[in-house]
Amino acid sequence: MIEHQMMDEMDVSVYQSTKKGNWCSGDAVFVIRTGSYILVAVTDGLGSGEDAQKASESVMAIIRNNHDLPLGSLLDRCNTAVWGTRGVVLSILKFDFPSRHVEYINVGNISCTFYYPNGKMYRPVPSRGYLSGRKHLSKPAMVPFEKGMNFIVHSDGLAFQPAYHALFNQSLPAKDMLEMLVELKVDTNDDVAIVLGHVNLDPTA
Ligand SMILES: [Mn+2]
What we know:
This protein is of the alpha+beta class. It has one domain: 4-Layer Sandwich (Phosphatase 2c, domain 1). The protein is 21% helix and 34% strand. The strands form two sheets. A six-stranded antiparallel sheet has the order 1-2-11-10-7-8, covered by helices on one side. A five-stranded antiparallel sheet has the order 3-4-5-6-9. α1 (50-66) runs antiparallel to α2. The chain binds manganese (II) ion. Manganese (II) ion binds next to loops.
């Protein structure tokens, strides 16, 4: 499934596919725009199929209803919600327009890379472990964003190859980058969730 969202500040394209033989995906994506931010969340429920979907859905329900909370508090609520499920790995990005910073928080293996127009790349190392209701130590980080920047957030169902970086080191709409990536990607026998974004406007201009 491919979805494109053209928003004033950025365009965002989402790709999702389900592991062969399963009827539902354990990965989930949520994107929302408000007057002051765009929030992107990607989860991967542990395992696959219905139990994984249930775990992901419990987290996404919290995020849908509480995306205005500071990310640390939001993650704490997600952590409470996954208790009794298989658990999830999760990344949340909040592009805050007034501060021109992305607030970023992560637990476990959801990868994220930011590509700046000057060719610089920032790739936070995903934290170990997963969210299961037990104590976690994740704290939000602040990453600057600017016009012309690209980003990708993806579950481990995408086996990211170093050659892919070249796709995002140019100023292209998210839609075009996603189409090229989908052509190149290899099958991993897992659910896949990919979110690609391209920042169009200087949010403070
Ligand atoms: Mn996975």
